[in-house]
Amino acid sequence: MNAIDPIHAEAQGIRLSGVTKSYDAKAVTIPPMDIEMRAGEFTVILGPSGCGKSTLLQMIAGLERVTGGTISIGGREVQDLEPKERGLAMVFQNYALYPHMTVAQNIGYSLRVAGIQRAERDARVKAVARMLGLADFLHRKPGQLSGGQRQRVAIGRAIIREPGVLLFDEPLSNLDAQLRQDMRLELAELHHRIGATSIFVTHDQVEAMTLADRILILNKGRVEQFDTPKTIYSRPASIFVAKFIGAPPMNILPVSGDGRALRFGNGKVFAASPLKGEFLLGIRPESIVLDRHGPIRAQLRHREDLGSHMILTAAFDLVDLRIALPFGSAEPQQSDLHLHFPRECLHLFDVEGRRIEADFHLEYAN
Ligand SMILES: Nc1ncnc2c1ncn2[C@@H]1O[C@H](COP(=O)(O)OP(=O)(O)OP(=O)(O)O)[C@@H](O)[C@H]1O
Ligand SMILES: [Mg+2]
């Protein structure tokens, strides 16, 4: 396939250099940002509401101007180009379909504009509609569809030309859980097939973990971490990231070091370490081991059975620890719990919440 094929473009790399955005003089929405997405890479942007996800996507799309910096797509600077000159397609939070056109016409619109023959157009529209579960609605108008069906038409319209770059802003947010799951698989297959460089904004961490080659975690417009789902989960760069990925979120316990040992707030030693000062220790609920001989004692306060696993809440050293037990594991019979924190599952952060790699080995003492 070559770049001028009207219905399939090669994936393009995207580079942002010093890109900033201020909607007004008083506030900076995106402080200078340098990031690069490789050609064909699937990036998921994750972050709390208002952190700048849509702003970032709209600057790449050309719907918002950058306040400073450059954006290049396939090596070509695009920040001053119109959206249609950037070689990308998008599905946004507030997608607008053409109300007077049928579903088939909406999906096939860009092919018609590109002058693709009717027979080919119809075949492609049918194939896309089948994939999106819209085959029975091709003759309806958008006003006769549910929100979720309309959202799928918007996706169909964006993907039909198989562009080199695809931008999605929460494209699955109007769908029910089952449809969302189905669409997630369809999108993963679609990406596999057309291989466009894709940027996908979502609030859903399952979507992020399953779709992304890399996840970009934004906090107030800044990049907290940009890495593979595996690394984001196993080596979060900050407490912010650690608490954003994983449900329930990572447990965070204050600890202090005197140069020889790290102690919990209750004064009990849990590790030998040369660290001095205050730190925060992290452990995921699923990493805590219930162990009759475990050195850490906690008081069970609550249990929630979620079917596939059980979440225990237990009081330990001024905090409530969350412990996740997989289905079928032995449940505690009494409220006095004995726990073990495996060394390889412990994360250490400074008081600002930044990850630190520190040497310490477990040495519990009561
Ligand atoms: N057109 C605008 N004019 C002024 N401020 C804006 C504009 N659009 C967004 N903002 C502000 O910029 C910040 C980032 O908004 P943005 O829409 O990018 O967030 P988001 O991460 O997409 O949030 P959500 O998850 O709620 O969609 C917010 O504080 C928002 O109020
Ligand atoms: Mg948004």
Written description of the protein model:
The strands form four sheets. A seven-stranded antiparallel β-sheet has the order 21-20-14-11-12-13-22. A six-stranded mixed β-sheet has the order 6-7-8-3-9-10, with helices on both faces. It folds into two domains: 14-240, Rossmann fold; 249-365, Beta Barrel (OB fold (Dihydrolipoamide Acetyltransferase, E2P)), CATH 2.40.50. The longest helix has 18 residues, at 177-194. With 366 residues, it is α+β, with helices and mostly antiparallel strands. 23% of the residues lie in helices and 34% in strands. Adenosine-5'-triphosphate binds at residues 23, 29, 47, 49-55. Residues 23, 29, 47, 49-55 line the site of adenosine-5'-triphosphate.
